[in-house]
Amino acid sequence: MTPPPFSPPLSRLRIGSAPDSWGVWFPDDPRQVPWQRFLDEVSRAGYEWIELGPYGYLPTDPARLTEETARRGLRVSAGTVFTGLHHGEAVWEKTWAHVADNAALARAMGAGHLVVIPSFWRDDRTGRVLEDRNLTADQWRDLTRLTERLGREVRDRFGLRIVVHPHADTHIDGEENVSRFLDATDPDLVALCLDTGHYAYCGGDSVALIERYGERIGYLHLKQVDPGILAEVVAQGIPFGPAVARGVMCEPPAGVPALEPVLAAAQALDVDLFAIVEQDMYPCPPDRPFPIARRTRRFLRSCGA
């Protein structure tokens, strides 16, 4: 009798990485590595899947980007957009123009997801407070209603699924706000991109979230935070950008949360999920990302991924 083919313990998870793990936050910045180097190094580090990163960092011509990724053995899992939908109808047209460009490129590259990040309540580089950190009831209604609209439009026009990314210094951050957001949105239109680092940064428990809202988890970002630096960040009220520059997001397995139980909980959902390594490192020396990426891929393989 022929034995069944071997399946890795985490066979439902597709591991990738992103420009963020190479210190890329902006379409064009002299402190960031050139896109060609990112593609070369992410492939050499052992990843097969990537995200597009900030629109305009990678080539936006699908034919050229297809050629560049294919010859390095890479495929695209998702695009990323920033939105401020709690501001209501007044921002819809501008938001849609930004989303449509990203979604069109993601679809052309064969991706199935669009990662949606809420806008910051304070500037992620300067720390300047832009608006109140707490939304009013009306703003919550606008946020949930327009996010559902975005999910419907992106699905119907581009065939992509939106996955909303809780993020530090935004209005969708820790357990309370994430639960409120999920409870108020339609599961058929809005899924969650659980970023393990951001959720821990904001005091959340990723395993508990997966166990409670498993049907809403549509995508994963894998990262860890340094608990010592995080304690300083919280105590001193340091904004996210300067916190990253201090090294609050660290190389696994040195930080929290432990990724093994998170990966096991995700595997237990018994659905195919992308699990994209995304270690915030802006700015960083150009030679720093590649060794970290290679070690991280090796670590994830040791976990069965």
Tell me the layout of helices and strands.
Blueprint: E1 13-17, H1 35-44, E2 49-51, H2 62-70, E3 75-83, H3 92-108, E4 113-118, H4 137-158, E5 161-164, H5 175-183, E6 191-195, H6 196-201, H7 206-212, E7 217-222, E8 224-225, H8 227-236, H9 240-245, E9 249-250, H10 259-268, E10 273-277, H11 289-302
Parallel strand pairs: 1-2, 1-10, 2-3, 3-4, 4-5, 5-6, 6-7, 7-10
Antiparallel strand pairs: 8-9
Structural commentary:
The chain has one domain: Alpha-Beta Barrel (TIM Barrel). Helix 3 runs parallel beside helix 4 and helix 7 runs parallel beside helix 10. The radius of gyration is 18 Å and the shape is globular. The N terminus is likely disordered. It has eleven helices and ten strands. An eight-stranded parallel β-barrel has the order 1-2-3-4-5-6-7-10, surrounded by five helices. The protein has 305 residues and is an alpha/beta fold.
Question: Which descriptors apply to this entry?
Answer:
single chain; 305 residues; TIM Barrel; disordered N terminus; Xyl_isomerase-like_sf
Average predicted local confidence, pLDDT? 96
Instruction: Briefly note the CATH topology name.
Output: TIM Barrel
Measured distance between first and last alpha carbons: 28 Å
Structural class by sheet pairing and helices: alpha/beta
Question: What is the level 1 CATH name?
Answer: Alpha Beta
What is the radius of gyration computed over CA atoms, rounded to a whole number of angstroms? Answer: 18 Å
Number of domains: 1
Uncertain residue ranges: 1-7
The succession of helices and strands, N to C, reads EHEHEHEHEHEHHEEHHEHEH
Strand order of the largest sheet: 1-2-3-4-5-6-7-10
Relative strand content: 15-25%
Count of individual helical segments: 11
Shape: globular
- Tell me the name of the CATH homologous superfamily: Divalent-metal-dependent TIM barrel enzymes
Kindly state the percentage of residues in helix: 25-40%
